[in-house]
Write a structure and sequence with these properties.
Layout (H helix, E strand, L loop, with lengths): L6 H10 L4 H25 L3 H72 L1 H58 L1
Helix pairs in contact: 1-2, 3-4
Length: 180
Amino acid sequence: RRLYFDTHALVCLLEGNGFTTQQSEVIVSALVKIMNTNLDMIYKDMVTKVQQEIALQQVMSHIGGVKKDMIILEKSEFSALRSENEKIKLELQQIKKQVMDEITKVRSDNKLDLNLEKSRVKELHAQQDRALTQTDRKIDTEVADLKTMLESHKLDNIKYLAGSVFTCLTVALGFYRLWI
């Protein structure tokens, strides 16, 4: 280690100010020991350039691994959401077909019944008209309920998608902030 002051000049200065040679040398020796101890403490907290580069490489490889994991997770999450969305669409189409078949079946049954009942009695005809109106209302209510349920599922899917996107953006911004 180098000392950035002249110890001999300090000894001479102390002697010039009334200290003996032995006292001056002891004081300078104590100062050198204190400075060396302080430098040792400072060097303990410091890292070498090689150590810093190794740590940087380790952090970079860890960040690279996390990026890969995030990409894989993002792809799997989006594919899971897409497949779930497709399943829901297929189920809704099947339900719609079933409802339409039921509507067609009920309407055809009611029309047949109405035609048969028209020939019998006018009073029964009025009762059948009321039954048909109630059936249409029930069908309309069911269709409206199915539409409401479809909208609810759409909104849920949009919420999950938005939450996933914001989560990915938050993680990306966090890594970006750590990176910078």
